[in-house]
């Protein structure tokens, strides 16, 4: 028996006044003392029928060193009940948290999940998306520079997860290619020409090019950027990735390891018909608060894109007869950030 394990085992038995048998103590150690290598956060609201597939795709991962956190935005359909019908859920490390009041803010719900996370590495999965089996394994290897076998052997021996910054990792954040499905049909991505790895800040200014369900990142990086904004119903991911990519290089796996699904169920990104106005206001907030002020090149790029976005949006408003709104955004474009 390894010395470290034996020492921990004796400590447990001692503090419990020897009230447990050695087998009970071993069970206690393995399930309560072993720290997960990755915390997976799934936010959910009234999608119990979809949550089952999302959770099943996590449990089917080849990488098993994770905890799964279900963050429920006060659903009416009680998604917790679904967990009991999922194969393997009873033996998995699953935490369920429920907000006391419905927020309608996906960033807030994800943030509550991160606050519950016990691992220094986090990954997000929306409740209507699914992962392919090797997603976590391949991302963890890139993020940490550690093979799955080495990481899981360390966890089995009771060793702690590595301190940060991680040595050997290619980046502090990694995302994957997505497969897009709408009502079961594949959606072509042939028109997507943006940059996906390395310094992707300028491309990220135009639109959200990192899907939350594709991401694995250091929890410390997430926290240093302030997490998701909790007052944005839409484009909270766009805003966070701008803060991340302003200073961090991004790793990318060019494999469809994430399946992004849309169907008959309501999606916030489609609730308002278009979401560009939310991106404009998110970028405006970052500029007004001086987020890029210590990065002159980033600030200049952000101001240029903001101005162009406002002009394009103003033109669209004018075309639709919303002249007052058009004038407001045209003035914003040529005034504050020209």
What would you note in describing this structure?
There is one protein chain. This protein is an alpha/beta fold and 338 residues long. The chain has helices at 3-15, 22-33, 48-59, 80-83, 106-116, 135-144, 148-156, 201-206, 219-224, 236-245, 268-271, 276-288, 296-319, 323-335, and strands at residues 38-44, 66-72, 94-98, 121-124, 130-131, 173-182, 185-186, 216-218, 251-262. It has 3 domains: 1-33, no CATH class; 34-265, Spore Coat Polysaccharide Biosynthesis Protein SpsA, Chain A, CATH 3.90.550; 276-335, no CATH class. Strands 1, 2, 3, 4, 5, 6, 7, 8 and 9 form a 9-stranded mixed sheet that branches. Strand 1 (38-44), helix 3 and strand 2 form a beta-alpha-beta unit. Helix 1 (3-15) crosses helix 2 and helix 12 (276-288) packs antiparallel against helix 13 (296-319). It starts with a helix and ends with a helix. Mean pLDDT is 85; it is low at 1-7.
Mean model confidence by pLDDT: 85
Low-confidence stretches: 1-7
Which H/E pattern describes the elements? Answer: HHEHEHEHEEHHEEHEHHEHHHH
- Strand residues, percent: 15-25%
Distance from N terminus to C terminus (CA atoms, Å) equals 68 Å
Task: Name the helicity range.
Answer: 40-55%
CATH level-3 fold name of the largest domain: Spore Coat Polysaccharide Biosynthesis Protein SpsA, Chain A
Count of DSSP-assigned helices: 14
The largest β sheet comes out as: 9 strands, mixed
- Overall number of structural domains: 3
CATH class of the largest domain: Alpha Beta
**Could you tell me the radius of gyration in angstroms?**
22 Å
In the CATH hierarchy, what is the architecture of the largest domain at level 2?
Alpha-Beta Complex
Structural class: alpha/beta
